[in-house]
Amino acid sequence: MNNRIVICGGGLMGLSVAYNLAKRGVKELFLFERNCIGSHNSSRVNTGLFVSPMFYSEPSLRSVARKSLNIYNELAATGAFEFNKCGRVYLSSTDESETQARRLLTRLVTDPSSSFQVEAIDCPSEMLARWPMLATEDVKLAVFSPLDATIDVSGLSRILADNCREMGVQIFENCSIKKVLINEESRVYAVDTDEGFIDVMAFVDAAGIDSSLVDVLGLPDADHPVRIAAHPCSFTFLSTDPLPHCQSSSQSQPVFVCMDENTFICPLKTKTICGGFTMEGGDLQALPPSSQTSKGSVTEWHMPTPVWDNFRIILRHLIDRCPELAQLSRGELMTSAEMYTPDMKPLIGESDQAKGFFLATGLNGQGVSFAGGLGSVLAEWILSGSSSIPVDKLELTRFLPLHSNPHYLYLRVPEIAFNTPKNPLSSHQCHTARNLRTSPIHHSLRDAGAVFAEIMGYERPLWYNTASHFDQDSDGPRLPRPSNFSGEDQLIGKPKWFPLVSKEYSTCRERVGLIDMTSFSKFDIQGADVVPLLQRLCSGNIDCPVGT
What we know:
This protein is 27% helix and 23% strand.
């Protein structure tokens, strides 16, 4: 029986999948990297920032990050790479960000696996005494998360590769995968590489930003590749000299995150890495293709060169928060890219288009935090057919075909890159690439004051706000206000929509309410046992005459 598994990609994700499969006893493992191991790790650019598992509000992401932490702790015991548990400080300067910081604080202090001391400081002078390089007069709250770390990603990639080789994994560097072949039963059966053909049981696409570029032959719909709802987006970081306070201090400094400015500062003894995310200035860009086939398929991405003018907004925020940065003599602006998904969660699992075709990509700039854990989850999935932890919110099949549309992704991913450091709630609504699917009476609902939310690409009314449907300039005409809701409710206090929904509820209860059900699933069930089935499934009595 053929038990060969081929992995495409020699970054952290691909190496983690190979490492976890080999630990589970798989003998015929082949990993292909078209350059050198770890050469395209975007996580290497930002000094391998590992985020504490409790940062994530989504339980499945916490479980994945915790698995990663356990794997890195095991590997760090060998002393082969730097794993600096320096911690992270979240700085909040507004009431809104303070609420988010206190939510994070609650998760951190209730973490049963942590023996480290979580701290919350609400005195600016105490913050300044502890971190004298910062301007803290406007900071309302600082939360110290002790499990955050910086990791030598190159060293981690090297030790993962060494462990894989010791367990029998065959690693091919400077060797590309040309094609993945699918048979008539829609199953992967072979891979064509620079080293020749390999018959396989499974293929794992963990090629990072090149995941969507893998050529797959034999799909039922030959004109469309494997659907991957992810697209690369570039971001910019500044690497500069170490801060004076870091050079004079014997202790390592934590990573500082300014929640309101969406910036971070990573002060190391040898250098300082800092950056941020903004929708202004053109700093975040979805990557355009640099070359395409005759059918329009992308074969390579165009990586933009860093532009100081695009970085100026972020740089101003960084200097305002850390004035010492302005005193440093030199700095190098660097650009890298990551794969981002429409809902800010990774893509993992088996494609519904080709059996045996597995995917692990779309880590949304959190590659170090997720790679180890996702490798463990996917290895278990490949060998047993399922995962021991619930990852339904991470499965690639959660998306519809329309979410893989290149134009949609091109518009959406810069906003995802901007929001990822904020860890928004699952109810968060984006403002880009909206109105994918609408009801036939969408315009009538909008004119009636509907405020819409996107659910699986469908615009559905959240509430109706007829009083504020129009914005009127003092000297201009009455203009329709945007009807798509974006952002999220803070879930604290009385929401702004409460009186609107209360009025709607009263109308439905006391009079008549008309609800547009277009976006809801409808099933036509037929057969001799349809009544017993529905009597079991439905709360109401189905066994009654038609029309009653």
